[in-house]
């Protein structure tokens, strides 16, 4: 009697890794209360059409008018929940959007601070389940960062970049680079345009949370981007910081209570993101992220917010020890460390 062929050892290992990865990612996602319901197909007007060289006040006014119209359209369609969230985004008529699109999950790029005079600009790139329906939590982090930056350096601005369709926290798309690959063209073309809107020779920093770190790490950046900070990251899809398509300094940090640390840092068959960015083997510059959880990095008074502020301002978070998270940065901390990554 012939014997049944046995499975190849490498096949068993690959299948076991795949199952472990899927189980770990899904389990971690399920226990974290950050998932939002799927965005309903709410009717909304097409986004405002503006010339490339439109002045910022005109751009802000056109997008705010479009946002108001989107709220009215949602209300008239009986989508009162979405309408209320859009009205909250108007911020009493004071919100300043470079881009707004109320269709589907939505797109929004909002400015905090005086962009035209800013020589330090932070671009926040969010992770999974960030939509128009969950926008207020994203905005809260941007506001906290802008206030912290302005206390140290008045010529600072923050741009909250919801410029892509984020994956759901509990979904197959959050396990792959697909959504990130779609987002890179949008973010890559936006950054040089943003640099032209800011003060001459402004320093741009990319602050990338969770799945947003996958987006940032796959986006080619020019000389206008001096720093890239990855926090709450599941990985980037790259084996090291040297493989990222940027000349910026690459930083990585993780809070002590962040559940993302339990995600397997492997990549099997296109699922998963490989090397952990906070692993010294990745080669990123470490920054102190404190004791917080996955959604705490930009909360006022946290060590992580203090570190991210230092990165944007050109400080070295790893060089500071002792002061409380809310202590002002020492003037000497504004010296930029000369660190570069050799690119393969």
Task: Give the SSE layout.
Elements: H1 9-31, H2 56-76, H3 80-90, E1 97-101, E2 107-113, E3 120-125, H4 135-152, E4 156-162, H5 178-197, E5 203-209, H6 211-217, E6 225-231, E7 249-253, E8 285-286, H7 303-313
Parallel strand pairs: 3-4, 3-5, 5-6, 6-7, 7-8
Antiparallel strand pairs: 1-2, 2-4
Helix pairs in contact: 2-3, 4-7, 5-6
- Based on CA atoms alone, the radius of gyration comes out at 21 Å
The beta-strand count equals 8
Helical segment count? 7
- End-to-end Cα distance: 54 Å
Q: Write the element-wise H/E pattern from the N-terminal end onward.
A: HHHEEEHEHEHEEEH
Question: What's the arrangement of strands in the largest beta sheet?
Answer: 1-2-4-3-5-6-7-8
Q: What structural class results from the helix and strand content?
A: alpha/beta
Q: In words, what does this structure look like?
A:
- The protein is an alpha/beta fold and 344 residues long.
- The chain is built from 7 helices and 8 strands; from the N terminus they run αααβββαβαβαβββα.
- It has an 8-stranded mixed β-sheet, with helices on both faces.
- Helix 2 runs antiparallel to helix 3, helix 4 packs across helix 7 and helix 5 crosses helix 6.
Précis, in short:
By secondary structure, this protein is an alpha/beta fold.
Keywords:
344 residues; 8-stranded mixed sheet; 13% strand; 7 helices; alpha/beta; 32% helix; 8 strands; disordered C terminus; disordered N terminus
């Amino acid at each position: 009697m012939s014997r049944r062929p046995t499975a190849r050892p490498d096949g068993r290992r690959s299948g076991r890794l795949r199952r472990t990865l899927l189980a770990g990612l899904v389990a971690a996602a399920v226990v974290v209360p950050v998932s939002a319901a799927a965005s309903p197909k709410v009717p909304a007007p097409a986004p405002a059409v503006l010339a490339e060289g439109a002045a910022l006040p005109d751009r802000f006014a056109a997008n705010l008018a479009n946002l108001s119209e989107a709220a009215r359209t949602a209300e008239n369609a009986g989508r009162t929940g979405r309408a209320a969230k859009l009205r909250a985004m108007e911020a009493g008529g004071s919100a300043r959007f470079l881009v707004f699109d109320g269709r589907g999950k939505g797109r929004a790029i909002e400015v905090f601070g005086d962009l035209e005079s800013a020589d330090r600009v932070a671009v926040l790139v969010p992770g999974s389940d960030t939509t128009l329906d969950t926008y207020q939590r994203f905005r809260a982090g941007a506001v906290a960062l802008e206030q912290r930056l302005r206390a140290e350096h008045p010529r600072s601005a923050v741009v909250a970049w919801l410029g892509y369709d984020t994956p759901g926290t509990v979904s197959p798309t959050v396990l792959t680079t697909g959504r990130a690959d779609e987002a890179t063209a949008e973010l890559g073309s936006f950054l040089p345009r943003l640099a032209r809107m800011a003060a001459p020779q402004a320093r741009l920093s990319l602050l990338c949370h969770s799945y947003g770190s996958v987006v940032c790490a796959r986006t080619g950046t020019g000389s206008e981007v001096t720093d890239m900070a990855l926090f709450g990251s599941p990985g980037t899809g790259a084996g090291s910081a040297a493989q990222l398509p940027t000349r910026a300094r690459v930083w990585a940090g993780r809070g002590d209570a962040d559940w993302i640390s339990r995600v397997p840092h492997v990549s099997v068959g296109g699922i998963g993101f490989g090397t952990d960015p906070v692993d010294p083997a990745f080669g990123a510059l470490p920054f102190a992220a404190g004791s917080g959880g996955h959604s705490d990095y930009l909360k006022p008074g946290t060590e992580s917010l203090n570190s991210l502020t230092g990165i944007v301002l050109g400080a070295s978070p790893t060089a500071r020890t002792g002061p409380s998270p809310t202590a002002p940065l020492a003037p000497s901390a504004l010296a930029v460390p000369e660190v570069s990554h050799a690119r393969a």
